[in-house]
Amino acid sequence: MDNEFLHKIDVRKVSEETGLSLDEIAALSGISDSRNLNKWSKDKSSGSRPNFNALVNLLLHGATVETLFGVEYKGSKNSVPKNIYDNPEFKAGVKMALMELEEEGFLREKKNL
What was the pLDDT predicted at 1? Predict the structure, then answer.
């Protein structure tokens, strides 16, 4: 199996996907100087890869499997939106919960505080 993808990360694309600056990506990844992120650069033939914790943090902040690993992830196209608050099921659940709280009088009590 060819592991060429292991050194192919477009850090600028990670920044675009996550909305994080290079300094923030470095901090999430446990790197003290963002200039060291170039070791992950997709145009480097050698270098390093983010460790497990860095990958998890980047995924949690919106980076995609495709960008971090250079492979297509079958579940990513129709999975949960990057922002969970845009998910219609999430919105419906919140609306239902708020209606139930209001019916029980909880929201009226809190408004009067």
Answer: 42
Q: Rounded to an integer, what distance in angstroms lies between the CA atom of residue 46 and that of residue 38?
A: 11
Cβ burial of 63 (10 Å; 0-12, 13-18, 19+) is buried
Which residues of the chain carry a pLDDT beneath 50? 1, 78, 80, 113
Alpha-carbon distance of 89 to 81, in angstroms, equals 11
Q: E strands, the chain, where?
A: none
CA atoms of 38 and 34, how far apart (whole Å) = 8
Query: 105: number of CA atoms within 13 Å, CB side?
Result: 1
CB 42 within 8 A of CB 9: yes
Q: What is the pLDDT of residue 106?
A: 64
Q: How far apart are CA 22 and CA 26, in angstroms?
A: 6
Length of the chain (residues): 113
Q: What angle do CA 38, 61, 51 make, to 5 degrees?
A: 50
DSSP designation for 74: G
Q: What is the pTM of this model?
A: 0.56
